[in-house]
Amino acid sequence: MSQKTTTKTTYHIPVGPIHPALKEPVFFEFEIDGEKIVNVDVKLGHVHRGVEWASRKRNPIQILYLAERICGICSYCHPAAFTLGIEDAADIEVPERAEYLRVIQGELERIASHMLWAGVAAHEIGFDTVLFLTWEMREKIMDLTEFLCGNRVTKGIMTIGGIRRDITKDMIPQITKSLDYLKDNFEKIRHIFLDDKTVKLRSQGAGILTKDDALRLCAVGPTTRASAIKKDVRVDTSYFAYGDLDIDYITPDILTGEVNGDVYDRIIQRLLEIKQSIDLIEQCLDIMPNGDIVSEPNIPKLLNQLKKVEGEGVGRHEAPRGEVFHYVKLTGEDTPFTWKVRAPTYNNILPWIPMLKGEQIADIPIVAASTDPCMSCTNRVGIIKDGNRYELNKEELHRLSVEKTRRLMR
Amino acid sequence: MGFSILPKVFSQMFKKPWTNKFPDKYQPSNTTKYLKAVGDGEVKINPPIPTPPGFRGKIIYDKEKCIGCKLCIKVCPCEAIEYKEKDKKIRIYLSRCCFCSQCNDVCPTKCLKMGDEFLLADSDPYSKGLIVE
Hints:
The complex is a heterodimer. The longest helix of chain A has 29 residues, at about 95-125. In chain A, α6 packs antiparallel against α12 (about 265-285). Chain A has 18 helices and 10 strands. A 3-stranded antiparallel sheet of chain A has the order 1-2-3. Chain A has a 3-stranded antiparallel sheet with strand order 6-7-8. Chain A has a single domain (about 50-380), classed as Cytochrome-c3 Hydrogenase, chain B, CATH 1.10.645.10. The model of chain A has no long low-confidence stretch (mean pLDDT about 85). Chain A is α+β, with helices and mostly antiparallel strands. Chain B is an alpha+beta fold. In chain B, β2 (about 80-85) and β3 form a beta hairpin.
């Protein structure tokens, strides 16, 4: 009997830029063989907003609020990284109490972001009851944020050389109440996500990112730590008050004893980080010293001081999604000469390709969501000339890069 | 794990809902008429949840105290503040304001203050309720 040979063909399925399964505009092109994904191509640049360009006509205090609007969920980490950059360039010393307060705000943001992610992940696998359960808990954190900062989302709490609002003694009971609520209910969330059969079926073995791939593609944040790479800016550089706190790298093998680098591990990773953040806030409340919260309360004086600064600074902060990187150059003018933002999702896009290869079409949303992507933060380059969109090839991009380096060095 | 959501469902059935029915328990059949009735004082609205202390809402401007130093204009991130040359006072366009309260911090005479009013939606960005002067 002769075997019948058929020519196998693969199909191309475009997903996005606007698609019901995606929260933000990003374009995927999948090469599909049956139900299996053979190859993936990702295209970005659909939500470029020219934030860095807008900074050229603003002074550093105004940029704080512009930076806050790069991302809604990370509305603290962008101003924080920018402030670190400015403080690096201008050699501003920050009072010790402010450093602790900054840690508290940063960790609160991490809890809110990871809770939000847990809800979205449950929604992506069609488990909407859990979405409402997690977001009910997240609501307490949002109320606490409003209580501490004056608004739920755009916190407006960072300032150059300190922080804008203090935590007084009479505010501490409210904070501990909210944290206790979280700790009491944490077991419930842990039980749902880690013991439930449905979640396990969808997440175990899906979207595997091996340690080698994570290292090679420079993944950051929980995505890389879930693949057992110990990379955390809080521990590596000990900025703010992290050096004084009891903090260590968190990897999923603390709980399970093994690392697979799949979606399930990324869920464990984020749940463990919520627990770590609660612990860090409690430590800060315990050992926070008294004193000033801002080094220079007179803002016009601070702006005049920054006007004279010539130099460049780098700010790195561990955002909920990973390392956020800001570069600022001041040349003795009102406005910074340049400001460059590198959001964590930028690093976490390429790991999508090894994660998605070999998966099924139905796994696309959960695998894509498992890195907690934030497209609006990431889109920094988009070239529109004469109303047309140009894609830059490698040589041209390299040429532009060299040109920019030379321009900056001048 | 069985039906672990059931206890939650039963307890929620007998609990008061979290949602605050604002501005009314049921949606009015005609919004314009409803708003008019509220304006005339015929219908009372269900009050919103009170804001926490330190909330950043609509700016309150004390015109008498203002010395016209323009510092608030210098730090405003969204250029919401206009300087009135004639009487050396400021005008704040709330449709542009981002409620950061930076102008409050910088003001040397403390004539600006964040209020707790937040119901500021309007179809006209230059309506009377959205301009503070």
